[in-house]
Amino acid sequence: MSLLSLFNTLGLGPDGWGSVLLLGALMTVVLTLAALAIGAVFGALIAAAKLSRWRVLRVFGDFYTTVFRGVPELLVIYLFYFGGSSLVTTVGQWFGADGFVGVPPFAVGAFAVGMISGAYQAEVYRAAVIAVARGEIEAARAIGMPTLTMFRRILIPQVLRYALPGIGNVWQLSLKDSALISVTGLAELLRASQIAAGSTHQYFLFFVAGGVLYLAMTGVSNRVFGRAEAIVGRSFKRNFARN
């Protein structure tokens, strides 16, 4: 393949597949953001359960993290997508619907990856809470600080500071897991690469192009999280110096 033909094939013109790959990359980022947000909610709840004084909550938290970290991600996606479709179809038949009723691939994919992400985020938040100095919490209670104020001014800022590196790792994990959503037909980056490769029969070219885009997203993500960690670190140093 000549260099000109390569540029035309990967270009943004009417005969190129560049726009398809870029839209797939955008879908991957949006899907990962949605999954990370869903995982943050589940992760916070499970972390609270694992730190609870109630044994039943701790057992439930351990069960959740064990299941979603131990079961293969692809199997979880299959269970949510195909199992969810079967459930919706059965319920629809109860109300007179005919035929198969599918579930939205984006919503199910984001929820499935979010549940997986939540298992890892739970451990990140739990470790961050444990890392907060107990003396600060005891001092806040000793002066009669309300619980909500203590959470807002002492616990949450420090938990976010300690958790940020781990959240960056979970983001990278979710970014890669999003490629598995291609089995549902959602046109994220891997699916877009498969479509382009199948249409042109240039499999090596488009899978390499997809890999390059994944690496580009990973590199940008590392820079963003590195910058965020630096900003949070400087903020805590300034607050410590003032105190």
UniProtKB/TrEMBL annotation:
Subcellular location field: Cell inner membrane; Cell membrane
Major subcellular location class: membrane
Cross-referenced Pfam families: BPD_transp_1
Superkingdom of the organism of origin: Bacteria
Membrane topology type: Multi-pass membrane protein
Domain ABC transmembrane type-1 span(s) in chain numbering: 25-225
Keyword Cell membrane annotated: yes
UniProt keyword list: Cell inner membrane, Cell membrane, Membrane, Transmembrane, Transmembrane helix, Transport
TM spans (from-to): 20-47, 203-220
Cited Gene3D superfamilies: MetI-like
SUPFAM superfamilies according to UniProt: MetI-like (SSF161098)
Record carries keyword Cytoplasm: no
A GO cellular-component term linked to this record: ATP-binding cassette (ABC) transporter complex
GO molecular function, one term: transmembrane transporter activity
Family to which the UniProt record says this protein belongs: Belongs to the binding-protein-dependent transport system permease family. HisMQ subfamily.
Name the UniProt record assigns to this protein: ABC transporter permease subunit
Organism, scientific name: Paraburkholderia acidiphila
Lineage: Bacteria, Pseudomonadati, Pseudomonadota, Betaproteobacteria, Burkholderiales
